[in-house]
Amino acid sequence: MNTAVMPTYGRADIAFEKGEGVYLISTDGRRFLDFGSGIAVNALGHSHPKLVKALQDQVGTLWHTSNLYHIPQQTALAELLCKTSFADLVFFGNSGAEAVEGCIKLARKYQSAIGHPEKWRVIACSGSFHGRSFATLSASKNAKHLDGFGPETDGFDQVPFGNLNELRNATGGETAAIVVEPIQGEGGIRPADIEYLKGLRATADEFGLLLIFDEVQTGMGRTGKLWAHEWAGIEPDAMAVAKGLGGGMPIGAIMATENAAQGMTPGTHGSTYGGNYLSTTAALAVLEEVTSDGFLDRVQEVSAYLLQKGEEIVAKYPDVFQEVRGKGLMLGFVCKVTNLDMWNKLRDAGLLTVPADDNVVRFLPPLIIEKSHVDEAIGILDQVAGAWEHGDDGA
Fold first, then answer.
1. Out of 3.30.200.20, 3.90.1150.10, 3.40.1550.10, 3.50.50.60, which CATH number does the structure's domain 16-34+294-389 have?
2. What would the CATH number be for the domain defined by 50-290?
3. How many CB atoms lie within 10 A of CB 339?
4. Would you say 101 and 122 are in contact if contact means Cβ atoms under 8 Å apart?
5. pLDDT tens, 196-220?
6. Would you please indicate which residues are annotated as catalytic (active-site) residues?
7. What pTM did the predictor assign?
8. pLDDT tens, 288-341?
């Protein structure tokens, strides 16, 4: 399709006009089970009544004033985020990349504030994805994403994901912080070992570094706990959050302890749109729902059922799938066939998923799914994989 939109995406030839819960309806009337959630964004699915009402009430009142003034909804959201996490302070931006980049700024400023301006480098991991800005691309060091954009931004060292010894060896006199995804999303749904996460906390403490978790994709209940690092029983110094936070409205957040944020004084960071009335109204409605009694218990129950059914499909079709891995409602099916072909065929059969590196197809359904939706999704996966294994895949 030729349009005036810059061709930076490999889009599927489809558009949607309506969403109902965990379903999307295309402009030609087809109905799809949405197990992609706008890449882990639509935490409450589509047209959730609480989120719709909150935005309808706000949209006729006030949208934007800038951060030159207090924004009551922003204050309420920050207070609830802190109440439900390790954080003492929150800064609001518009995206995950901004949140990660802001965490990097915070870490450098922290070291300067405590008398160590020579500490400015950040250690990141192979297979990571932290965003599309120059700094976040340089942290991830994905050659495909950097190709043609000139020299990398200096200040980032990379070590193998999951290897604590290599990370410790890379720590030097200029190291300010460590940034890690508890589960690598774009990298192919690769969960960090619990002991590794605990080791990161211990290493950061030992060397006087800030530990930054990129929970842009893993946060907001995606793994069955509000924050994925909670499974390890540790806390970071700072965290980047976005995606599911706004339930579809663009918002990102830097969450930090008071100690880690001590260098962030007036004028050190800012955002014109960040945390405006609409985005924080949406995020507050989402966070209130996700932290309501029983919500995350249901996520854990349904996600255990999804993993069980996923493992059964992998065992049933060993020529199509290698394994299924992940946590909560963040699962990756590692394919032996081409993952983009699998993504296309699942969509043609009525199931929306998300491709990732390492030949993975991601299941990132809304957090409101029920076991009946799992059965429907697994039924489609069974149908597509069965046709593939029996040589009737339409290729």
1. 3.90.1150.10
2. 3.40.640.10
3. 22
4. no
5. 999 999 999 999 999 999 999 999 9
6. 129, 214, 243
7. 0.96
8. 999 999 999 999 999 999 999 999 999 999 999 999 999 999 999 999 999 999
